[in-house]
């Protein structure tokens, strides 16, 4: 059973999305994130993964949502607010990663895993509508 944590970074009316290569699916859209270690919370894992994948640190934690993921573990969606000047950096060229700020209405829902699509459709807009 694998627990996952996703960093949902919101900057005014935009959301940080990564496009990266997955061996079993090719290029996919997803939030920055990864596995939760045994010694950390889902929120801590999302913050750590965000820093490891994008170099972004020190964001304001707004909320954490959790549900059962497709692998039978937990998935944590951690909403973090970014100031206007915050920009991600591709830190690992080997994962063929692209980092893009999307308007909430332009997020390519169909390209995400089902748990991500559910989070986007049910919860994301309430954080976009709130000023940073």
Automatic annotation (TrEMBL):
Catalytic activity as recorded in UniProt: 8-oxo-GTP + H2O = 8-oxo-GMP + diphosphate + H(+); 8-oxo-dGTP + H2O = 8-oxo-dGMP + diphosphate + H(+)
Keyword terms, alphabetized: DNA damage, DNA repair, DNA replication, Hydrolase, Magnesium, Metal-binding, Mutator protein
All residue ranges annotated as the Nudix hydrolase domain in the record: 1-126
Keyword Kinase belongs to the record: no
One protein family per Pfam: NUDIX
E.C. numbers: 3.6.1.55
InterPro entries, alphabetized: MutT-like, NUDIX_hydrolase-like_dom_sf, NUDIX_hydrolase_CS, NUDIX_hydrolase_dom
Keyword Hydrolase: yes
Necessary cofactors: Mg(2+)
Transmembrane segments: none
Entries under SUPFAM superfamilies matching the protein: Nudix
Family: Belongs to the Nudix hydrolase family.
UniProt-recorded name of the protein: 8-oxo-dGTP diphosphatase
